[in-house]
Amino acid sequence: MFWGPKHALLEVRDWRGGYEDDGDPQNGWWLDNAWAEGGCCIDLDNRHLALYGGEDIECDILWLETYLRLLKYTWKGWTIEWSWGELGQIACCAGVTGDKLEEIDCKITSRPSDIDWYIDKYLFDIPDKRYSGSSTLSVLSKGEIRAAFTCESEPEAMLTVEGRIGRLLDHLQPSPLVRDDDEFLMGSLHLDFDKREIWVWRTWDNHIDIDLPAYWSGWKLFDCKYHYRKFYSSVPRFIEFVPRSEDLYIQKIRDWVCKDKDYFAPHRLALEERERLFEEVRAQYRSDNPTPRILPEL
């Protein structure tokens, strides 16, 4: 989708995969949120693009934000929407309704089945706590804040340990944590025992409402969805991020969209042409934004 509507339309015309239909999205064959890894809806009438997909970009919100900023230069005059609701949101944009939409928009979450293994063998098994870890757990109790990096990509899943939460607290350390990594976090969970508040932000499945286990009855939930700035400005500071220039993420995007692989190449757009077009976009963006942003902007 990066190269704009002309090339995108050439590409998606081959996506139907030979399935016969009448061209009506309501009657077409769809995957669902559980199986689809990406999708888009190109609304030519309203000049609106909805899209999602790609593990790297979807797991790193700083990369995603930079990608969407660049996309405005190749989709000039279009509105652009990232589909946090995955394929269900794409189907809705395409006009699918009723039972068909409900079938596509299935909401499936994965939760640990063996809580003891989850706590003792998985959650905090991080070789280098500066450079890895998908999320954080932080706790405020009696005015003291402690935190740790975790391997959990869906931080709300940590709430399912319920009464064994004390075993998680044993792994926490005095703040601040320091994150020195090119990859941003996928989410954070903050438990305020003094106010009985739960704060969370997450990239994956943030369109699915959190169903609090019974153990947390009486606690107030603040689900920030993908709004990480709201989360970090609302809870006590427990982590410091080593700043990175947005140029790092721009280069990551270039490396991805200009790979010399046939299956990464948009239809009829050669590698040399992609490299030339990308440098034009980069130059236009830098002309409009002379000073590179320092990320994350908290």
TrEMBL record:
It comes from the Bacteria. This is Uncharacterized protein. The lineage of its organism: Bacteria, Bacillati, Actinomycetota, Coriobacteriia, Coriobacteriales.
